Amino acid sequence: MTQTPGPRPLSDEALSQLLGAQQFGTLATVKRNGRPHLTTMLYSWDPEARVVRFSTTADRVKVRQLRNDPKAALHVQGGNVWSFAVAEGEAEVSDVTTVPGDEVGRELLGIVPEGARPEDEDAFLEQLVAERRVVVRLKVDRLYGTALDIDG
């Protein structure tokens, strides 16, 4: 009987690269009853600051949960089902963007992936205000994850 390889832990650098290579992940927040709340999110990873940024609206459940308990984690799938990274930390929620082009609005614009930048930036910034958008900043204090090297 041949022994199959087990998962190997990824280095901090490999985990950071995996986070930077993806755009979507599953954000876990904590409900009042202590159970996790999971939601798929578009995100932006800043490896130097070790901050994951998300755009959402002020009325979302995750915003209330993070204001109540800032502990959160982001799970990101790697290149195959056996590879993943998790970024854990405490999140903070910005103020609502209230004036097109204010500091929060500019930060939200920075979250948009390069290839998806709006042609009409002013209209986009106005839309962010109308939607009552906020930035969630997950300050990462722990990265972990694994990869399993298998063929196929």
Automatic annotation (TrEMBL):
One Gene Ontology cellular component: cytosol
Keyword Lipid metabolism included in the entry's annotation: no
Residues annotated as domain Pyridoxamine 5'-phosphate oxidase N-terminal: 12-94
Molecular function terms from GO: coenzyme F420 binding; oxidoreductase activity, acting on the CH-CH group of donors
Keywords: Oxidoreductase
Cited InterPro entries: F420-binding_dom_put, F420H2_bilvrd_red/Heme_oxyg, Pyridox_Oxase_N, Split_barrel_FMN-bd
Pfam families assigned: PNPOx_N (PF01243)
Protein name per its UniProtKB record: Pyridoxamine 5'-phosphate oxidase
Originating organism: Streptomyces viridochromogenes (strain DSM 40736 / JCM 4977 / BCRC 1201 / Tue 494)
Organism taxonomic ancestry: Bacteria, Bacillati, Actinomycetota, Actinomycetes, Kitasatosporales
